[in-house]
Amino acid sequence: MEVITETRVPLYIFANSSSIEPDCLRQAKDIANLEPAFHHVALMPDAHVGYGMPIGGILALKGHICPNAVGVDIGCGMVFTPTNLTAREIAKKDLEKLVQQIMRDIPTGFNIHKKPKTAPPFLQNPKLPSVLEKEIDRALKSLGTLGGGNHFIDIQKDQEGKIALMIHSGSRHFGLSIAKYYHQKAREICQKKNIDLPTPDLAYLESDSTLGQEYIRAMNLAMQYAKENRRQLMEATKKAVKEIFPQAKFGQELNAHHNYAALETHFGEKVWVHRKGAIRAGEKDPVIVPGSMTTHSYVGVGLGNPDSFNSCAHGAGRKLGRREAKRRYRVEEILKDIEEQGVILGKIKKGDIAEESRFSYKNIEEVIENQKDLAKMEIQLTPLASIIG
Fold it and tell me: Would you call 314 a catalytic residue per the annotation?
């Protein structure tokens, strides 16, 4: 761990600082200079540039909450389920059939369901501002949809050859609408109070204020929505698996958010811990750390390290921006690489495939090594098939 002390609170970096891009380091210093920043800021080994705050950053604020320190995909996270199937009993043609079945059953990219799903209890009386209430119909049509970008459904095998399912998705447009609405409100309040911010992207709210409490309720609602979305995605995936492999049985699901804020006690104080692209890794907490499309993913347990506010990395972390990835790599060479790595790809539109290739992400093995004091990895997973938006 490296420590930078030139900021208002120290910056703890769980990687070699030379591996952190300059703009990401600047953003980390910005949040460490915020007036309500508490004790220190932690930067995970997968850190890269985000809106206002780095993805892979952990920020504790005393008495305040910052929408952009949570992120726009509120509640985005992972769900993981082991199965009784083994890789040796799955023929490639059956795996290809499974990928096609999942793609028929689950909308990906910008696609949503034509009809709204039944509202889960938490969405039946959400008590949101009217501008956000209008998002409910779209939210119900988006339940059980994957989204685009780096959201995925993976069929993987562990070290013993056992098949597992891993899904990455979030709160879809619902969380984005909440994030944008309250960030704008926070900006207006900070301007009105003449609060000196490193950047307007880091506008925050008093957590006990009317707007602060409103945002917290809306954020928690989006987190519930994201978890329900992942549940429905996993149920649809399990159903597809059973159709192709009737003998399949499923183990206990693990679920973890990696974009959220929570009121926790650290260093003797109650503070709002913002995890933006970071997983809670308290002692024995389950942690899910995916790699990139053709590389290993990991499942393990947290070690409860106070220096990271009981957190760890949420994945490999981007090495190249989306535009740069598309500029450097041709679609054909990425598709060839995926095939050579032995991974079956499920993707409707392949024009942006370079953005999610292994070349666009950091080395997951280095990320895992750099956070060995934060989490202990117990299961190493190799991708067999990947469905992305």
Answer: yes
* Catalytic entry in 39, 40, 274, 314: 314
Q: Is the pLDDT of residue 379 over 90?
A: yes
Secondary structure of the chain in HEC code, one letter for each residue: CEEECCCCCCEEECCCHHHCCHHHHHHHHHHHCCCCEEEEEEEEEEEECCCCCCEEEEEEECCEECHHHHCCCCCCEEEEEEEEEEHHHCCHHHHHHHHHHHHHHCCCCCCCCCCCCCCCHHHCCCCCCHHHHCCHHHHHHHCCCCCCCCCEEEEEECCCCEEEEEEEECCHHHHHHHHHHHHHHHHHHHHHCCCCCCCHHHCCEECCCHHHHHHHHHHHHHHHHHHHHHHHHHHHHHHHHHHHCCCCCECCCEEEECEEEEEEEECCEEEEEEEECEEECCCCCEEEECCCCCCCEEEEEECCCHHHCCEEECCCCECCCHHHHHHHCCHHHHHHHHHHCCCEEECCCCCCHHHHCHHHECCHHHHHHHCCCCEEEEEEEEEEEEEEC
**CATH assignment of 2-388, among 3.30.1300.10, 2.60.120.260, 3.90.1860.10, 3.40.50.11270:** 3.90.1860.10
Q: Binding-site residues for GMP, please?
A: 258-259, 290-293, 297, 314-317
- If you average pLDDT over every residue of the chain, what do you get? 96
Domain coordinates of the chain in residue numbers? Answer: 2-388
**What is the model's pLDDT at position 25?**
96
Average pLDDT over residues 188-210: 97
- Residues 160-175: tens digit of each pLDDT: 999 999 999 999 999 9
Mean pLDDT of 81-102: 97
Binding-site entries for Mn(2+): 73, 151, 168, 258
Return the pLDDT at 16. Answer: 84
pLDDT of residue 51: 92
> 0.70 cut: is pTM over it?
yes
Which pLDDT belongs to residue 17?
81
